[in-house]
Amino acid sequence: MQLKGRLKLVADMVPPCRIVGDVGTDHAYVPIYLVKNKICEKAIATDVRTGPIDKARKNIMQYKMESYIETRVGYGLEPLEDNEIDIVIIAGMGGLLIRDIISKSYMKAQKARRLIFQPMNAADVLREWLYKNGFDISDEGIAQEDGKIYIVLAAEWTGLSKQFDEVYYHVGEKLVGKRDPLLKEYLERKLRQIDKTVKGLNMAEKKDLAVISNKIRLKEDIEKILKSL
Q: Where are the beta strands (DSSP E) in 60-212?
């Protein structure tokens, strides 16, 4: 099995492990890849709905992985036992939902060696929450697939709360530090999104000047990072 784009980047951030938990697994492509390539010994693939789990089971059977990959139905980390999982993957969900899942199973999440997230949106909210709630973002990368840009980040529990300038919640300190090859395009897209938002805010009947000012300041900070690349 071959992975590409965002799922390949997710898999690349998984270190050798005993058991990986793939939350919201859908087709179970990532756990199948990880076990088949001997990156992880076993996997548990979960989803809140039975439909995706049925698809996952079919793929697991197709690749003859039944002895190595287990499927479970349930919300977030709830189907996983304490200390059962080395690595947790949550990919393809919104940043707010990922935050809520980790918040709801906060103690369980702390026990994972690494958590890997691929938020479809609201990555800034997720980054800020992780930093302020004792998780350190140790790695981050950008993938491009079918003309879209995706963010993947890895976090570990440290128990230490951190605070950064707002721009680094939107951009990602690790992305800037490693000068990701796709960072320039990512920042340019961010700037276009901010311009569109500010234009909409300015057209509103009741303008929120504080919000507009904050967006303009964020744009200026992103432009500074872009110029430094």
A: 69-73, 87-93, 114-119, 135-145, 148-157
Burial (0-12, 13-18, 19+ Cβ within 10 Å), 7: buried
Q: Domain 5-178 class?
A: alpha beta
Task: Break the chain into its structural domains and give their ranges.
Answer: 5-178, 184-228
Q: Are 171 and 187 in contact (CB under 8 A)?
A: yes
Please compute the mean of the pLDDT values over residues 9-31 and round it to a whole number. 97
Structural element, H or E, at residue 225: helix 209-228
For the full predicted model, state whether its pTM sits above 0.90: yes
Q: Can you tell me the distance from the alpha carbon of 44 to that of 48, in angstroms, rounded to the nearest whole number?
A: 13
Confidence of residue 34 (pLDDT cuts 50, 70, 90): very high
Distance from chain centroid for Cα 45: 17
Question: Residue 181 — φ and ψ, nearest 5°?
Answer: -55, -25
